[in-house]
Structure formats: C-alpha cells, structure tokens
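Journal club prep, notes for RB
We'll compare a predicted complex against what the paper describes. Inputs for the WT7 case:
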Amino acid sequence: MSAQTSAIQSTLVENRVFPPSDATVAAARISGMAGYEALCAEADKDYEGFWARLARENVVWNKPFTQTLDESNAPFYKWFQDGELNASANCLDKHIGTPTENKTAIIFEADGGEVTKVTYKELLAKVSQFANVLKAKGVQKGDRVVLYMPMTIEGVIAMQACARIGATHSVVFGGFSSKALHERIQDAGAVAVVTANYQMRGGKELPLKAIVDEALAMGGCESAKSVIVFQRTPTAVNMVAGRDSFMHEEMAQQSTECAPEFVGAEHPLFVLYTSGSTGKPKGVQHSTGGYLLWAKLTMDWTFDLKDSDIFWCTADIGWITGHSYVAYGPLAAGATQIIFEGVPTFPKADRFWKMIEKHKCTIFYTAPTAIRSLIKAADSDESVHPARSDLSSLRILGSVGEPINPEAWMWYYKNVGGERCPIVDTFWQTETGGHMVTPLPGATPLVPGSCTLPLPGIQVAIVDEAGHDVPNGSGGILVVKKPWPSMIRTIWGDPERFKKSYFPEELKGYYLAGDGAVRSEDRGYFRITGRIDDVLNVSGHRMGTMEIESALVAKSDIVAEAAVVGRPDDLTGEAIVAFVVLKGPVPTGDDAKALAKELRDWVGKEIGPIAKPKEIRFGENLPKTRSGKIMRRLLRGIAKGETITQDTSTLENPAILDQLSKTN
Ligand code: WT7
C-alpha cells in the first residue's frame, strides 16, 4: 500500500461522516433526511397505498391494476396482478412524442474506442425490427430466449425485443463456459439463442458463437430451434444451415414497427441464473410490473437522475446490475447512458477516467473490485491516475456488488469524486431486482464502508436465528420483513427450492438474503459483513463453493474429493481456495504445480474463468468430523494461513491439518 493510501486509512479510524452539501440537498429529488423520512412514514402508514401510488406514477399501464398486493399464496407474492403493461413500451414508446424521443439513449464505446450513438426513436425502431425477427422465428409470448451477447447496443436490443413480444429472456454472461451455457439453455427450455460471432475485450477477439455451437452439440437442447448471430467482427464463423442466421440480414427484412404485446404484471420478464449453496445454479425469475417499477424508481431515487445526466453503469448485461441499471432502469427513466464494451485496463488503466472525461459522464456506477484494481494501477503508474483526467462532470458515484472497504471508498471519494460527489454504496442482490439499502445522494450523511439505510418501503432488518430483532451493534442475519414489488417470484421450475432457500420456516416468513450484517449503534446504519451461506463473492461475482466442488470432482479420473472455501483478498474481495484429495498419491513440486494448473483449466471449462481457484492445495484427506462432515471452518483458517488453535478433538483425522497447511 502506498503512503498515500495508508494515510487515508488512518483517518478512517475516526469514523468520519460526509453529509451532502446544502446545494445538493436543495436540488435533490429526495431532499434531506426529512424527505427520506416522509417517504418512509408514508410506507409505514399505508404500505399498499404507498406502492400503489408509486406504481401509478412511474409505470405506464395498458390496463390499470385494481389489487396492489396479493399475499394469499405467500411466499409467492403477486403485485399489481390484474394490471397489464409492456416493459419495452415503458422504456421506449413512452418517450415518443415527448422531447426525449430525439435524446440520445445510448452512447456506445467499443473496446477499440469507436463511438456509436442511438436516440430513443432510433432504438425503438431497432428493437421493433428485432422483435419482428424473433416473431418470424416462431418465438411466442411466454417462450424463453437465451442471450449470450457482448456488451453492445445489440445486447440491449435483444433484451428489449424479447420484452416487446412477451418472451422471457435469460442472459448468460459471455464469460461462462459452453457447459454452463448448456445447463442454462436446457433448464430454461429456450426456443432460441441470440449471440454474436465474437466479442472484443482488451483488444482480443473472443469467441461466442463457437461456444454456443459446443453447448448445443452437448444434446438435450432440442427446444432451441434457432440461433441468431450478431456480426460483431468481420471474422467468419461456422453457420448451421436451417438453424443459424445473421441478425443484420434478418432485421433488414423486417418492419421497424412492432406493436408491443401487453402482458400481466406478473408475467416473467426474465430469468437470470445465479449461484446458490448447492451445485445447481438458480434461475431467478422476475416479474414485469413490480420489477420495472423499482428499476425506474431507483434510477430517480438512488441516482437522483436529472434530464441532463449522462449515466454510466459499468456492469455487464449478463448480471442483474446490467439488467436493472443498463437494459431497463435508465431507459424507463429516459436517461442518456454510456455502454462500454471493453475492460477498464485497456489500452491503459485510465480507460474509465478518459471515458468519463470524453462523454462528460455525471453519474458513474461501478464495483469495488474495479476501484481497487485501478488504485493499484495508479499507485504504480502515475500516468493513469484519475488526476490526469478531467472528471469535473461527475456529480454522483456509486458502488455495487460487494462491501467496499473504507480505504477504497476514501480513494474513490477523493480522487474520482473530487470530495464533491456523494457515493451511493448500494446493497442488493439478483433476487431483489433493485437497490435495497443505500444512501440517497441528497439526503443521507455518508459513512465509508456502510450502505447506510434501507430505501423507503423496504423493510430490511437484522435478526437472530429465530427471527428476533437484534439490537444495534450486534451482528445478525439480514432479512426483509415484508414483500416488495421487485422481489424474486420463484426459482424457474423449482418452487420448493424457492421457498426453502428464501423463506425458511424458522424466520417467520421473512425473506432471507443470505448475508450477515450489523447496524451501527449511533445511526443505525447497516454494514454488510458477508455471506452466511456457502456462496463466495469474487470480484463482485457470486460463486457457489458447491458448484466449484462439483466441477472438481467431475474430473473423476484424478479427483477423489474436493472442498472449496473463500479467503480474503485485497484485490478481488474474496479468493477461491480449493482443497483437493486425488485418487493417486499427494503430488509435490512441479507435479503439484502441473496438476493444479490442469484442475484450474478444467474448472474454467466447466464453469468459466471467473470460477478458477486462485490456489489449489492437495492432501491425503480433508478434515472431517467423526460423522463425516467436512470442517469448512478449519479449512477457511488454513486458507488464510492461520495456525489452528481451535479444539480439533472432534476431528476424525487431526494430522491432516498439518499436511494441508503446507503448500505442496
Ligand atoms: C451479493 C449479491 C447487487 C448486484 C450485484 C451482485 C453482495 C452486493 C453489496 C454492497 C456489500 C454487497 C452481497 C449480496 N453485495 N452489493 N453494496 N455491499 N455487499 O448481485 O450476484 O446477486 O450478489 O453481493 O453479499 O448478497 P449478486
């Protein structure tokens, strides 16, 4: 750590508080804590009335709803059930005939730096054209379409086009392997796949279409009748006659008009797969009405969006952040947004700062892992320091995906925000659809490392294992006590798992987020202490330890058993450490290195590069209780390099700890 960053850290011990400036408060949509408290009070007084008002004001309904919340089949809550709407009409058609129609909707900057812009009117024409392509391919309302796309305007077009015809999209992040893609196409029963020939990242052309081919060749995906390919680069790819076609060729044959298909508010807008505590990813199903309401409203509330803003969320559309704050929220709110194809370090680690300067970005929303890597880059190379770019256009900064450590927060605040821009540290999840606990830029005094307070109407609390509230200052389990409009509706095809995972009986019907948290004694501010289940957060990406373990033991010719844990990491938040028992003898030296590499590559192929363990340790066995349960707590200690001082008398094989503590 540089002298500068350690100095910053020491100021944090004082627990500094950063209130918004008077000017920010005066100009904000939710102005001051009084504004925040007034909304909270409205929700407390009449919960359904509060949400009904917001849903009427923020969503365009083709048919108005008469019932706000239906709890008759809890926890399968229904919101605005008899209302009808179309998500794409709410993002595009709504702006036609208003001054927004000729406003730039998207400023796209490609990996290589080329810039393309589309207005709302142009985007509507393209979305309609592609919606007609999907219809021509036989895709119907209720069908699932898997998207395996790069970060491009076309990615957003494909999502919006699905929404327009009432098809449910399932976006798979372009970094997932063919095996992971196959599993998702199959689970969703997709009728079509939309992809690109290649994606460009960091100056490299990376295959997408070839991976789709591999996934479909694995069999069991017979439902997928067509593959539509966006030609991102001139490089040719294999095209299967009768199944594959090019997006531009198909679009050229279609009209630029397509009437939106109105759907019920509960109609599944999308299914997005995420990791849970078992080996199988969960298809998180979201609604149309409640989801869209929250995506739009949190743009206004959390980001205090103004007509003149240039909004930039750096998340990929393969994650929930890219759904709510790229594909839907900004468009529903009529914002101009930046979409970036590449990586923050190409051609140099000042790409973000140069892009903020060039496009006069006003609201910048990124992940702590990106900030930490850019701090490191700026510490070692002055020329990429944010001070070398003009960042004066910025007015609000955001953070998402994992806890932001106070020293990274301070650096972001000072060097990117010029001590002028509030940082909204937004806590939420794939399952919550949008922000849950976050500061409001024109209201909440900020404390570095804290996501502060729940948004109005969101009943977040910290409880013990029996569901009783714990006092401020004591850690506990983060729950949401009341249903909210943008919550997960079910796990695609597995309602029982939905109930068990999120509404366990002992928690009185509260929604279980899976995170630990603590509220500060002075302000009642929330601080997230990390996952309490077997889920890791690596660079803001959620990974199930069981998923990685299943991948490792699937290499059944050499692996007998595996246990995966997380270890704190300065750059990635958590790092994946795998303890592996081989079928053969415990390897040492170069053999151990070669085997570790083989297994890492294997996991990369089974799940994707993001799941590759940072470290693999081999042993004859794993520490187990006499009943055969793996003692993960001990493995976490070993992974951190701690000497084990706990009582190990319940262990079947205490000697194994020594062996695993040594690197092979
Ligand atoms: C998990 C959800 C939220 C969209 C991106 C990740 C962690 C997320 C924060 C934050 C502390 C955070 C939690 C959560 N997380 N945001 N601001 N502070 N932790 O979505 O992949 O569903 O992961 O990310 O552990 O449960 P996700």
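Talking point for the session: Residues 589-606 form the longest helix (18 residues).
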